[in-house]
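Memo to structure team: turn this sequence into structure tokens by end of day. - J.P.
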Amino acid sequence: MPKNQLAPKIFACRQSLILAEKIAKEYKTTLGKVKTTYFSDGEFQPAFQESVRGKRVFIIGSTFPNADNLMEMLLMLDAAKRASARHITAVMPYFGWARQDRKDQPRVAIGAKLVANLLQSAGATRIITMDLHADQIQGFFEKPVDHLYASTIFMPYVKSLNLDNLTIASPDMGGSKRAYAYSKHLLCDVVICYKQRKKANVISHMELIGDVKGKNVILVDDMIDTGGTLAHAANLMMERGAISVRAICTHPILSGDAYNKIQESGLTELIVSDTIPLKKETSKIKVVSCAPLFADVMHKVQDNTSISGQFLM
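Reply from structure team:
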């Protein structure tokens, strides 16, 4: 088969266009052309402007709210399926709706499972994503899931800081596994914050398990939404004698008053990836691109080679 017929096609959803362009550049190719038709009531229709018949197709799009972002991914998957693409991979740097991974109260949906069903029904034959809110979401799929870890891109930056008396911290009990994975590679201690919530996004109480006096602390989490947890944790650690507090968060949702909370908090720096585009730049936020990681994994998927070397956790 001619080489050009083996080459994959890479397309982008509108919300992830900047990241997709970076990934395509790292992949040493260009994005495929998509034309989107808009209707006056807000409905939209994406259409591929080039043939995908018999091709491997990568569709890049994070599915953070609003729901149009998820809907666009579904429409593009369905379009690729109906255009006779051979393999259709949904590249979702941020897998939205993942916080609804179980029934934590009566009469609620399991949103992450619903999204998994929708993606597969729309035509996805493979999923590539990073730092799921809960690892077990991989089990919601009947298709292969390549679950990447952002530690691969953050670890070199952390090491470049050359911090003495380093301690890794988890902002909650659920993130302790992630914190221990970082501490194992950095050969340092771990502290954990125990928090109680009145309701979603509202903390009623927080306690610190471990000693941070005289330490340079790095909080690690999969996402930052309102910023309340990290700001609270950073202020608490500075009160307990920490020299500095930084935070690593893969997905910068940063909703509501998050930017102001981060700017006014005791955090020295917030380090995030570009899975979700920032609404604005601030002096405290450092962005580390995940494009090289995704491009490398996409190459390996295309070539049917192992991606296990990309896992630090």
